[in-house]
Recover the amino acids of this structure.
């Protein structure tokens, strides 16, 4: 009986609907300032496009999506993870110029954010 319950529990936990969702992250966002469009290649093999909703994360899977919310003004933006970074340890995500603008952080360069993986 115990063995059957254990097998049932393991089976249920391995089903896609029971997979644990990644937890939201809190930290500082920055944005790609350098590199003109088409001159910088990302880890996913695409060219950096400052007019897209791309981002770099050190730990979210390439190709995944996340919602980034600026904690100063409440603005949110959906981004696609196409690169690794940021290289500074105190930053959680690097955003494209468009995403930074849409989040209202282009002028300051950084902002406290919540990152919610999708």
């Amino acid at each position: 009986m115990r063995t059957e319950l254990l097998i049932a529990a393991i089976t249920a936990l391995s089903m896609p609907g029971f997979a644990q969702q990644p937890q939201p992250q809190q930290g500082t966002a920055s944005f790609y300032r350098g590199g003109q469009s088409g001159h910088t290649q990302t880890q996913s093999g695409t060219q950096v496009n400052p007019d897209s909703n791309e981002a770099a994360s050190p730990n979210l899977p390439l190709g995944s999506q996340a919602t980034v919310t600026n904690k100063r003004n409440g603005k949110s933006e959906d981004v696609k993870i196409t690169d690794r970074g940021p290289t500074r340890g105190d930053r959680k995500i690097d955003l494209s110029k468009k995403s930074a603008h849409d989040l209202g952080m282009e002028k300051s360069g950084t902002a406290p954010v919540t990152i919610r993986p999708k």
